[in-house]
Amino acid sequence: MDEPHDAEQDVDREVGSRFVWVEDEVTITSTARSIQKRKGRVDAEVVAAVVPLLSHERRVFHSEADFQFALGMAVREETGARVRLEVAVKPGVHLDMMVTDSQTGAQTAVELKYLKAAWRGTVDDEQYQLPGHDARDLGGYDCLKDLRRNEDFVAVEQGRSALLVVLTNDPGYWSPPKNGGTTNAEDFRIHEGAVIEGVREWGPGAGPGTKSGGRAAPIELRGTYQPRWHDYSRLDGPRGLFRYTTLITRT
To answer: Across-strand partners of 110?
Structure first.
């Protein structure tokens, strides 16, 4: 995100891992740790593997900042990496999260998007009231803008990686269009099976209001991305299904 929510937060603290659980009397262990052991370092693939683990601790979040902090804590506890939130990489530009391997010093940038449809409910004795966000065209643009920011990050230094995590309970993000028609935001779709690459720009009918707030410029991507969506949690009521995708950028 271009501007930080708060001052830089440190989630590097010593607490016991909560991310080993028992299901049908079989201990389920972290795939993140096995990937980390195989690769010998913490990188975007390892961080991505922490996301489904987090769903056993937190099935829903109040806000993107809540999601950001919870994931940062989970990554720290699961991998032992150093985690920092809202890290400035240049004036006016902040990464949501920087993960640094404690052994190798390898850095991973993590950008998060929590795109909410309206939902109300109680989870683990905690009440949630999520406001709706119906502007999928803007949400899609912002996701691709984060992808470009991640590409800029990894291009600076060999060995860096980056990750975009998108979590939503709005099926319009993960579902392909049914009517086969095109819209002015066609280039910014992130649904299952989409191929995201090259120059992405608004259609000719997009108005000034749509392009406001730093969203006017085309986005040129160096890599190719194909979102694969997975269930994150299932809660009661309409829009109770939350799904996520993780898009990895490497040098």
So the answer is: 97, 163
Confirm whether 106 is domain-assigned. yes
CA distance 55 to 18: 12
Distances (CA, A) of 126 to 60, 62, 123: 10, 10, 5
When divided into structural domains, the chain yields a total of 1
DSSP label at residue 105? -
Q: Which residues contact 105 (CB under 8 A, 6 or more apart)?
A: none
Q: Is residue 4 part of a domain?
A: no
In DSSP terms, which residues pair with 130 in a beta bridge?
119
pLDDT in tens, the chain (251 residues): 444 333 334 443 333 333 333 333 233 345 777 777 767 789 999 999 999 999 999 999 999 999 999 999 999 999 999 999 999 988 888 999 999 999 899 999 999 999 999 999 999 999 999 998 868 999 999 999 999 999 999 999 999 999 999 999 999 999 998 876 678 899 999 999 999 999 999 999 888 888 888 899 999 999 999 999 999 999 999 999 999 999 999 97
The answer to whether the beta carbons of residues 61 and 235 sit under 8 Å apart is: no
* Domain limits for position 214: 9-250
Residue 58 counted as domain residue? yes
Cα 196 to Cα 102, 115, 145, 204: the distances in Å are: 33, 19, 12, 19
